[in-house]
């Protein structure tokens, strides 16, 4: 009798994806500061707002970000912040500033900020696909019935 009681005390219940139903949320980036906004989105994707959060499993929500072109940065970051890419060929490094990237691909700025706040593992690679970023206030995910969240 005592042996059975001790074993039940020692066991820990780890939450899995099937224990947490998938949820879709919409957040608006209009007028928000990039870093603070990206950290909140990363928490939602990771599932840290969930009381049953487990670090090694996907417990987060799908996040739709609207108005990506209206995100802000503070200070001189618009001119000083740089995004580096390399083609892996000699002399293949390209440098683009924040303001250049905002003119051409503002969605990419938010995607990179959130991706760099997620774990650098297989789980992080899986989680970044739960982020959908769009210019403007329209998105094609109305069938998922996303909930509006204020960050």
Helix and strand element order: HEHEHEEHHHEE
Shape descriptor: globular
Please report the distance between the alpha carbons of the first and last residues.
51 Å
Question: What summary fits the major beta sheet?
Answer: 4 strands, parallel
CATH H-level homologous superfamily name: Ribosomal protein L13
The DSSP helix count reads 6
- Please estimate the helix content: 25-40%
What is the CATH topology assignment? Ribosomal Protein L13p, Chain: A
CATH C-level class is Alpha Beta
Helix-strand layout with pairing:
Blueprint (H helix, E strand, L loop, with lengths): L1 H9 L13 E5 L5 H13 L15 E5 L10 H4 L1 E5 L6 E5 H7 L1 H10 L6 H6 L3 E3 L13 E2 L3
Parallel strand pairs: 1-2, 1-6, 2-5
Antiparallel strand pairs: 3-4
Structure in words:
- The chain is α/β, with parallel strands linked by helices.
- The protein has a single domain (20-148), classed as Ribosomal Protein L13p, Chain: A (Alpha-Beta Complex).
- The chain has six helices and six strands.
- The chain has helices at residues 2-10, 34-46, 77-80, 98-104, 106-115, 122-127, and strands at 24-28, 62-66, 82-86, 93-97, 131-133, 147-148.
- A four-stranded parallel sheet has the order 5-2-1-6, with helices on one face. Strands 3-4 form a two-stranded antiparallel sheet.
- Strand 3 and strand 4 (93-97) form a beta hairpin.
- It is globular, with a radius of gyration of 19 Å.
- The termini are far apart.
- The model has no long low-confidence stretch (mean pLDDT 92).
């Amino acid at each position: 009798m005592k042996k059975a009681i001790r074993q039940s005390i020692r066991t820990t219940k780890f939450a899995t994806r099937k224990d947490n139903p998938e949820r879709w949320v919409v957040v608006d980036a209009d007028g928000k500061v990039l870093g603070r906004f990206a950290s909140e989105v990363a928490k939602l994707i990771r599932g840290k707002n969930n009381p049953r959060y487990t670090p090694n499993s996907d417990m987060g929500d799908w996040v739709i970000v609207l108005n990506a072109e209206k995100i802000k940065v503070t200070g001189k970051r618009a001119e000083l912040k740089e995004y580096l890419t390399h083609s892996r060929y000699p002399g293949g490094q390209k440098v683009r500033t924040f303001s250049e990237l905002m003119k051409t691909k503002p969605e990419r700025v938010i995607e990179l900020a959130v991706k760099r706040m997620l774990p650098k593992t297989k789980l992080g690679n899986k989680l970044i696909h739960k982020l959908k970023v769009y210019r403007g206030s329209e998105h094609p995910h109305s069938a998922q019935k996303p909930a509006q969240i204020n960050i």
